[in-house]
Amino acid sequence: MKKSKSILLLFACLLVLFMVFGCKGKDERQVKLEKGIRFMHSLTGSGPADKLAAEHYQANTPEGMIMLYTSSLPEDGSYPSVYSDRQGLQPWSLLILPGNKENALIVEGYGDDLQKPIIVEEIAVKK
């Protein structure tokens, strides 16, 4: 009986330790960055509304993508800020740069350290 109580107590302690240290979720700010990058992917789709927006904003340039991104965002603050140059870059925001290929953009997601991005993705702008 004493042995089973010890095992049960040990199991309960391990469960508590797992809950405290093992279930640490993703940082909300990083989730917001990932959400912003998914939104950038959605803006580069090939639907008619996207083509119209791309022509209007010249969205195949980083500046045009920034205009399209910011004009399309809901105003609830659930998406990160976006920049086209490193000088104005703020922590926990996205930086959009020209891609390595034609009609491509590089999206970098930064955390507290503005010298090293957390996320880097190249997005092809579909025409």
Topology record:
Blueprint: H1 2-22, H2 28-43, H3 48-57, H4 62-72, E1 82-83, E2 93-98, E3 104-110, E4 119-124
Parallel strand pairs: 1-2
Antiparallel strand pairs: 2-3, 3-4
The overall pLDDT average reads 80
Number of structurally distinct domains: 1
Principal-axis shape: elongated
What is the H-and-E element order? HHHHEEEE
Q: Which blocks of ≥5 consecutive residues have pLDDT under 50?
A: none
Largest sheet: 4 strands, mixed
Lateral strand order in the biggest sheet = 1-2-3-4
Walk me through the structure:
This protein is of the alpha+beta class. It has helices spanning about 1-20, 30-45, 50-55, 60-70; strands at about 80-85, 95-100, 105-110, 120-125. It has one domain (about 25-125). A four-stranded mixed beta sheet has the order 1-2-3-4, with helices on one face. Strand 3 and strand 4 form a beta hairpin. The mean pLDDT is about 80.
Question: In summary, what is this structure?
Answer:
By secondary structure, this protein is α+β, with helices and mostly antiparallel strands. Helix content is 46%, strand content 17%. It has one domain.
Question: What descriptors fit this protein?
Answer:
single chain, alpha+beta, 4 helices, 127 residues, elongated, 4-stranded mixed β-sheet
